[in-house]
């Protein structure tokens, strides 16, 4: 529950189909169970994070530790908010937003994953749209960025659908082989001009200081 000392659990972003917020401890363990069951299609490696390709137990532990680590290391100068994606009241995945020196740079970076049963339903686009509303309308960001492998077609499609523009490429190693990573950037002006779902924010005022505002 949110408290005066730690109000982040009271921060929510809601659309017609889903809700973003920090999970309770039981809900976090439900997310860990979803991760254990799988977050990527067999034989594919669309995510840069290696945890998604571990054993079921390793995937579950990675989700738990990432959540606890993000809150334990939080500072207004360097924060990571791993919001759970709730569909019909149940956890479906994670939509994160992070920033360094946000008060000065006003730039955020996003990341996400959804459990396999929730793929292909447009939820990834809607979850990122809700996160962008939090970043731009709520926190006053000027830029949002996203990175993905060039062959991660769903992530590329989400970025393009939401108005991001190409922002360069990088060469990285994936399982010992060179691969291309695409960078995308969305400015405040581009976000203003893009059609998007209606989003309702609650609990943000109490959290402003934690974001360096």
Can you walk me through this structure?
The chain has 213 residues and is of the alpha+beta class. It has one domain (8-211): Gcn5-related N-acetyltransferase (GNAT) (Aminopeptidase). It contains six helices and nine strands. It has helices at residues 25-37, 56-72, 102-105, 123-138, 153-161, 188-192, and strands at residues 12-14, 18-21, 78-87, 90-100, 107-114, 143-149, 165-174, 177-187, 200-202. A nine-stranded mixed β-sheet has the order 7-8-6-5-4-3-2-1-9, sandwiched between helices. Strand 3 and strand 4 (90-100) form a beta hairpin. Helix 1 runs antiparallel to helix 2. The longest helix has 17 residues, at 56-72. The two termini are 22 Å apart. The model has no long low-confidence stretch (mean pLDDT 93).
How many strand elements? Answer: 9
CATH fourth-tier homologous superfamily: Gcn5-related N-acetyltransferase (GNAT)
Largest sheet, described in full?
9 strands, mixed
Main CATH class: Alpha Beta
InterPro entries: Acyl_CoA_acyltransferase, GNAT_dom, Ribosomal_N-acetyltransferase
Pfam families: Acetyltransf_3
GO cellular component, one term: cytoplasm
GO molecular function, one term: protein-N-terminal-alanine acetyltransferase activity
Label this structure with key terms.
9-stranded mixed β-sheet; 213 residues; Aminopeptidase; alpha+beta
Short synopsis of the structure:
The chain has 213 residues and is an alpha+beta fold.
Topology at a glance:
Elements: E1 12-14, E2 18-21, H1 25-37, H2 56-72, E3 78-87, E4 90-100, H3 102-105, E5 107-114, H4 123-138, E6 143-149, H5 153-161, E7 165-174, E8 177-187, H6 188-192, E9 200-202
Parallel strand pairs: 5-6
Antiparallel strand pairs: 1-2, 1-9, 2-3, 3-4, 4-5, 6-8, 7-8
Protein name: RimJ/RimL family protein N-acetyltransferase
Pfam families: Acetyltransf_3 (PF13302)
GO cellular component, one term: cytoplasm
